[in-house]
Design goal:
globular, alpha/beta, Rossmann fold, single chain, four-stranded antiparallel sheet, 10 helices, six-stranded mixed sheet
Length: 310
Amino acid sequence: MNAMTEPTHFDRLSNQHLDALEEETIFILREVAAAFERPALLFSGGKDSLVMLKCAEKAFGVGRIPYPLLMIDTGHNFHEVTDFRDFRAKELGAELIVRSVEDSMARGTVRLAHPGESRNVHQSVTLLEAIDEFRFDALIGGARRDEEKARAKERIFSHRDSFGQWQPKAQRPELWTLFNTRLQPGEHFRVFPISNWTELDVWQYIEREKIALPSLYYTHKRDVVERKGLLVPVTELTPPKEGETVESRDVRFRTVGDITCTCPVESLAATAADIVIETLAADVSERGATRMDDKTSEASMEKRKKDGYF
């Protein structure tokens, strides 16, 4: 190997770090399969769930993932993401279950304050209905502790009561990777195998493993307006307001979700390696920079989680 291609000391350390995170994630995914009867992996088609799915593929093999993939669809998701979700599930031979907030609206269990209200927070109702329908006892999610403060309080195995509620003061200790998975009837766990990853770790792993992502994650031209310090995409669901100027800019999405609350950032990053460099220089968290519905207090987010939020 010549000097041009020989790994640097930084590369070796980075790979050791990613290897350790991957090993922990695979261990947790296997623990869920061993400890629970009816687990499911929450799968949105976003980067974090795709990283988790890659680890599940390594843990069990293609066509052998022992739990279904579950998505709670608001009906306002980017088609690039939902199309990629379907493609990836089919490629892995995994069972995909989709439940929609619109179905909950038809049942009357979700009622919007007004037609333009974001459906994102109402996913909790549809999620709890899916848990009841399939009797899931563990849901594996892609939340990371670096995303915001309320998430940082979660255990990896986060206990939920029979109402799907999270009680931060009642979380069980996790010492030496020993997880207490005891459940009473009607209770379940939310499990977060990539809790200890950061946004930078995720992008370095995507680059190393050559993980394919929806095109929205990379630079593209998009009409946007500036609103409250964010770039709001111009769509049928998010039209410009009176007095706002529509501009075509080079942007990418750091996170993807409901169109009504997800914003891109200005960027020319066309590859995972480009995004790693951008992430190293970022001074705002991905949710703080891109989510309109996260402009709330920590206490408000905790309340949403107690109500069954992801």
